[in-house]
Specification:
Elements (H helix, E strand, L loop, with lengths): L1 E4 H6 L1 H9 L4 E5 L2 E6 L29 H9 L3
Parallel strand pairs: 1-2
Antiparallel strand pairs: 2-3
Length: 79
């Protein structure tokens, strides 16, 4: 993805808008730090993939009690 500084974006705005409208998004940076991303209005938005890790891990049945004894020692036995 192309990155342009603010000054270049101001002087080349028409050309950059045409590129974005054609599907070539770009970043506008200030002092080398990206500030904004310019994309076409009708550009497809990346869809979030819910559940893509389904079945890849396991949550133990005692998840809510994990470390319970250590926590009690830290907070209650110091009195």
């Amino acid at each position: 993805m192309e990155t342009v500084n603010i000054h270049e974006a101001k002087t080349q705005l028409s050309r950059l808008i045409e590129k974005a409208a054609a599907g070539e998004s770009f970043l506008i940076a200030k002092a080398g730090k990206p500030m904004v991303k310019v994309v076409a209005v009708d550009a497809p938005v990346a869809k979030r993939r819910l559940g893509f890790l389904q079945g890849q891990g396991r949550i133990p049945k005692d998840f809510d009690m994990m470390g319970h004894s250590e926590i009690e020692q830290m907070f209650y036995e110091a009195e």
